[in-house]
Write a structure and sequence with these properties.
Elements: E1 2-10, E2 16-25, E3 30-34, H1 41-48, E4 56-61, E5 64-65, H2 74-79, E6 81-84, H3 96-105, H4 111-124, H5 140-152, E7 158-162, H6 170-185, E8 189-194, H7 197-203, E9 206-211, E10 214-218
Parallel strand pairs: 3-8, 3-9, 6-7, 7-8
Antiparallel strand pairs: 1-2, 1-4, 4-5, 9-10
Helix pairs in contact: 3-4, 3-5, 4-5, 5-6
Membrane topology: Peripheral membrane protein
Function: Part of the ABC transporter FtsEX involved in cellular division.
Main location: membrane
């Protein structure tokens, strides 16, 4: 699914944000990428989203070499990655339904299909009863569930969650991680970027630890992967 080979990223200031990292993530894996502020996690996310280009090395995602990808293919590539952020990034003036539907409307999905797929996603994240609510009427945990539904609505190959529990209390953080584990159980590749070692220890998943732009620990590769199933009918 993802292959990172000897990747470096040096900024114009001379700062080496990523220093020769290499790893692979298999289809259907659940992987934590852990590190403190300044460890290179944010740069790695931007490299995977093709928001930055590596100074050296090769990144392949789902058999696509990002270094050889024409610019016109980048939007389609990014849609193959469902991304969830710490701050939810919901549209405050739109309902839960419309927040999730937005990801399909922008790529021209017909309304009749949206009326089928959005309720399906809201059932998955446990928010069917709140489809008419606005973000201000939801708890932090509920807002993150909306963000996850939106990230999954276009059936991405990978769900990339950047500090998904950073703005949540311990109860809601635990519930969101259970939801991500359930999503992974359906065969979806899930990558969680975090600085929370406590959360990582509780989950018992593969952990890639970064420090000063380097990988200092990788607990292992894919084992016993579930069969990948589409979220769509």
């Amino acid at each position: 699914m993802i292959e990172i080979s000897d990747v470096f990223k040096t900024y114009e200031t001379g700062s080496k944000a990523v220093r020769g990292i290499s790893f692979t993530i298999g289809d259907g894996e659940f992987v934590f990428i852990v590190g403190r502020s300044g460890s290179g996690k944010s740069t790695l996310i931007k490299l995977l989203l093709k928001e930055l280009e590596p100074t050296h090395g090769r990144i392949v995602v789902n058999d696509m070499d990002l270094g050889k990808m024409p610019r016109r293919y980048i939007p389609k590539y990014r849609r193959s990655l469902g991304v969830v952020f710490q701050d939810f990034r919901l549209l405050k003036d739109r309902t839960v339904f419309e927040n999730v539907a937005f990801a399909q409307r922008v790529i021209g999905v017909p309304s009749r299909i949206i009326r089928e797929t959005v309720p399906e996603m809201l059932r998955l994240v446990g928010l069917s009863a709140k489809y008419k609510a606005y973000p201000r009427q939801l708890s932090g945990g509920e807002q993150q569930r909306v963000a996850i539904a939106r990230a999954l609505i276009n059936d991405p190959e990978v769900l990339l969650a950047d500090e998904p529990t950073g703005n949540l209390d311990s109860f809601n953080a635990h519930e969101i991680m259970k939801l991500l584990e359930e999503i992974n159980g359906r065969g979806r590749t899930v990558i969680v970027v975090t600085h929370s070692q406590e959360m990582v220890d509780e989950m018992g998943k593969r952990v890639i630890t970064m420090e000063r732009g380097e990988i200092i620990r990788d607990t292992g590769g894919p084992i016993g992967l579930p069969e990948r199933r589409s979220f769509k009918r």
